Amino acid sequence: MKKTLLLLLFSVTVFSQKTSFTFDSQILGEKRELTISLPLSIEKNPNKKYPILILLDGDYLFDPFYGALQYGAYWDDLPETIIVGIHQNQKNERIDDSMHDDIEDELTGKGAQFFNFIGGELIPYLEKKYPTAPFRIIAGHDTTAGFLNYFLYKENPLFQAYISLAPELTKGMQERLPDELLKTKKSIFYYQANGDGDIRKIQNGIKNLDAGLQEVKNPLVHYKFDNFKNTSHYAVVLQAIPNALYHFFESYKPISSLEFSEKIASLPSGYVDYLVARYDTLYENLGLRTLVRLNDFKAIEAAILKNKAYSELGQLAEIATVNYPKSMLSDYELGLMYEKLGDPKRAAKYYQTASQQEEIGDLTKTMMLEKYEDMITQIPKK
């Protein structure tokens, strides 16, 4: 009985951050049901900021996106993200919310109101209430996937990333969207997916848009298209979601063994510069400032040692001081540098200092003292 109670309490704790509530919209003149998931670390890290994902058709898209992001965050491949699903499961609600004029290719009536609700009420509410990063994603399926493109018609698009799943597109949109992305002056991530088992009309529109987007030669546009074989209109969703997320968050992922062997270890020098540039790119693309991962430190350290560029360990120590100021990492890197440069006296000094600081990763006080004693034995006697 006690075990059952503990399991129940644990489950509530784990999933308590996922809740549904009603939002009273002044713009729509009605209440809308929302489901929101907050990162588990949000209370422990008050200074950390998180991307926002707005899900149209949130009543059925929420769970597959939630699962993919939870899994990716567990392995630190994807950042923790604030997920907000807008339910549109009332009669004709998703159609009304996407109301538009095919000839003018503009939102009308309820569609224009819903557009203004997202930008004028929902996003400001979320950004006031939660610690959000300046990277916003919007996703939709068929009708709502077509709707989300209207945000790209604005000079300063509200969202930086778009997930368009089997979209229903107007002819005007197929022609206009490539022109809008060609002239954008801000970084835009755009993902589009098609299933070849979908109805021909939808497929034709998607392929026409893809042909136009492939011609967009703008370095600020990061476009990816997936055409899934033997996949239906609904099955495309589960296949596309991880591809879209990993496309957007490519710069977030930790250094892999493939990246190490193909891009880092083969460099003649500049290993620490590579690390700095990598995290600068993360900030430029996603607006995220994160601590340099310990595994990324170790990868750069391994490249330095492999190529005997020992002086760069000093630069690595400077980054360690900024990211992990209370740990032994910085003094360890300096001790390692002087050890490799053949100066055991200085190496011993830094290993001794490191032994008095907080352990981190596989670096322990015992290890530092052993290295200190080893260096002492190598100091030339007068």
Overview of this protein structure:
This protein is of the alpha/beta class and 382 residues long. It has 2 domains: 10-252, Alpha/Beta hydrolase fold, catalytic domain (Rossmann fold, 3-Layer(aba) Sandwich), CATH 3.40.50.1820; 257-378, Serine Threonine Protein Phosphatase 5, Tetratricopeptide repeat. The chain is 49% helix and 16% strand. The protein has an 8-stranded mixed sheet with strand order 1-2-4-3-7-8-9-10, sandwiched between helices. Strands 5-6 form a two-stranded antiparallel sheet. Helix 2 links the parallel strand 3 and strand 4. The longest helix has 21 residues, at 109-129. Mean pLDDT is 93; it is low at 1-16.
Write the layout of secondary structure elements.
Blueprint: H1 2-15, E1 18-25, E2 30-37, E3 50-55, H2 58-74, E4 82-86, H3 93-97, E5 100-101, E6 106-107, H4 109-129, E7 132-141, H5 143-147, E8 161-165, H6 171-182, E9 188-195, H7 200-214, E10 221-228, H8 235-248, H9 257-264, H10 271-286, H11 294-306, H12 312-323, H13 329-340, H14 344-354, H15 365-378
Parallel strand pairs: 3-4, 3-7, 7-8, 8-9, 9-10
Antiparallel strand pairs: 1-2, 2-4, 5-6
